[in-house]
Amino acid sequence: MSRLGQKFQKRAARVRYKVSCVRGERPRLSVFRSQRHIYAQVIDDARAITLCAASTKDKSLALKKTSTTQAAERVGALIAERARSAGVEKITFDRGGYRYHGKIKALAEAARQGGLLF
Prior knowledge:
By secondary structure, the protein is α+β, with helices and mostly antiparallel strands. The chain has 3 helices and 4 strands. The chain has a 4-stranded mixed sheet. Helix 2 packs parallel to helix 3.
């Protein structure tokens, strides 16, 4: 495995440990980023269900470019809107192994502006 892959796994394990400390108290906003798209879902670990989800693949966003920071902001706003309609206001942010930078940061800040507390 490459050095970058090892760093990613270490970061993911560290984040997973911190998030697991509040598991059951709050749902978590889990983020996955691929080369072309970004996905976000709010998961209730106590009941093991997904409460809501959003991604750049949603037809309601009508994005021309899906791999930009602006697209991540739109996904963050959409997930915040859907989470609030599902009755969720306080969450914990699970960034996976991704650094809090760029698209991940844009998504998180847009979700905060949309009314989610984390």
